[in-house]
Description:
- Chain A is built from no helices and 11 strands.
- In chain A, strand 4 and strand 5 (42-51) form a beta hairpin.
- The radius of gyration of chain A is 13 Å and the shape is globular.
- Chain A has a domain at 1-7 and 31-96: Immunoglobulin-like.
- Chain A is mainly beta and 114 residues long.
- The model of chain A has no long low-confidence stretch (mean pLDDT 93).
- In chain B, a hairpin with a 4-residue loop joins strand 7 and strand 8 (72-77).
- In chain B, the strands form 2 sheets. In chain B, strands 2, 4, 5, 9, 10 and 11 form a 6-stranded mixed β-sheet that branches. A 5-stranded antiparallel β-sheet of chain B has the order 1-3-8-7-6, with no helix packed on it.
- Chain B has one domain (3-112): Immunoglobulins (Immunoglobulin-like, Sandwich), CATH 2.60.40.
- Chain B is built from no helices and 11 strands.
- Classes of the chains: A mainly beta (114), B mainly beta (113).
- Chain A binds chain B through residues 4, 31, 33, 35, 40-45, 48, 50, 56, 58, 90, 92, 94-96, 98, 100-108, and chain B through 4, 32, 34, 41-46, 49, 89, 93, 95, 98-106.
Amino acid sequence: DVKVTQSSRYLVKRTGEKVFLECVQDMDHENMFWYRQDPGLGLRLIYFSYDVKMKEKGDIPEGYSVSREKKERFSLILESASTNQTSMYLCASSWASGAYNEQFFGPGTRLTVL
Amino acid sequence: SQKIEQNSEALNIQEGKTATLTCNYTNYSPAYLQWYRQDPGRGPVFLLLIRENEKEKRKERLKVTFDTTLKQSLFHITASQPADSATYLCALGRDTNAGKSTFGDGTTLTVKP
């Protein structure tokens, strides 16, 4: 079974703090994704990585950065957390050319910024 | 810009009936469409993929149709059970888009016993 794990299920941070969210997958997937999920807005792509050290901006990259130093690990960084970054953050991974292009998701991190 | 709309935020049906969920899209020409299931507090789980040249796909009690002229997919769950209660997301993608998909915001299905 593919496993995607995220470092925390719940996180509370203060405005202005630097926040690190970590994601690890164990299936040797090339692609990794970071999304945020908000009521009424659905899943929105923040950043995408298709290989180690490679990254692409998604639809809402402002205020975020990412790091992928190893194939299995993809980190999302909030440089200076703000209250509008309170959200559910979901990491996903997939093969570069799978038959179904399916993404495997982690359990999510619910981040609250006070 | 691309827009994906899933039918009414919530759908309530009686056990044993067929649930039908809708996914409409505009300003997009997807090569495939996916359906995912998401339970509260969990990440989405992939269910089915249907390609642009396919009209219908089935998997057990699930059936998906894809009409590229209407720009619409219908997702059916036959003989629904309370365990089918969840949020269902549709996602569109292109093979040239490096595995990225654009997700709708989901329809929450509740199946009442």
